[in-house]
Amino acid sequence: MEHILGQGWEIHPAGGATGEAFFAKYQEQKLFLKRNSSPFLAVLSAEGIVPKLVWTKRMENGDVITAQQWLNGRELKPEEMGQERVAKLLKKIHDSAPLVSMLERLGKASFKPEKMLAELEKSIDNELLQMPSVRSAITFLKAEIKNIQNGEFVVCHSDINHNNWMLSEDNELYLIDWDGPVIADPALDIGMLLYLYIPRENWPTWLNQYGVILTDHLLLRMKWYVVRQTLIDIQWHKDKQRYQEMNHWTRFLQEVNESYE
Known about the structure:
Elements: H1 2-5, E1 10-13, E2 21-26, E3 29-35, H2 40-46, E4 53-58, E5 64-69, E6 73-75, H3 84-94, H4 97-105, H5 113-123, H6 126-129, H7 132-144, E7 154-156, E8 165-168, E9 173-175, E10 182-184, H8 187-197, H9 203-210, H10 216-239, H11 243-257
Antiparallel strand pairs: 1-2, 2-3, 3-5, 4-5, 6-8, 7-10, 8-9
Helix pairs in contact: 3-9, 5-10, 7-10, 7-11, 8-10, 10-11
């Protein structure tokens, strides 16, 4: 990294699972650097969804380094996820034609429920399948797959945890960490956000801020995607031997199984 930036820059790892992100500082200049970010980042920057992309450079070994504005800010708190600006930014993302176009150019096809279910069934191990809540969840996914069909496919972030929402010192809201975007039903994002952060009685208000009405069909679609994602999370934590987190998501799955029948 040093030979790209020049002398005098302080460079520190930014953490994260990949170890490919860094903070860089030189006098009053501050940058967030990442190795081999997707070209998708440029469109996210142009749309104002992530902090501004400053430059992109290709190294001799073929790696691509991107530099973004390093903004002082903070993550949203769980209780702030009900704010109107969260709903508005998520709607802006879901309405963006340039985001869909770029993902399609990068080879992404619409991620339909049938493929989601097939991939999930391959990933769930036999031990988890012995759990009644897991079996019940998979039965639900199979039974309702024909009833959740929806013609709208948008770019979904697919990990709308409050830690991925950044509020800058200038009060600008961003959704960061775009490592797993998909073209899918917007209910994929909306469902996890509502189930995780918004009290049930406030769902109609939040969805009104987003720009849709709560219907039985939307309720079913949201529940379907939340059940699927929760099963993925349970298996992931089990694979990592993170049993406390696995048990947390297993309890959450049971609650979702029993919800809004």
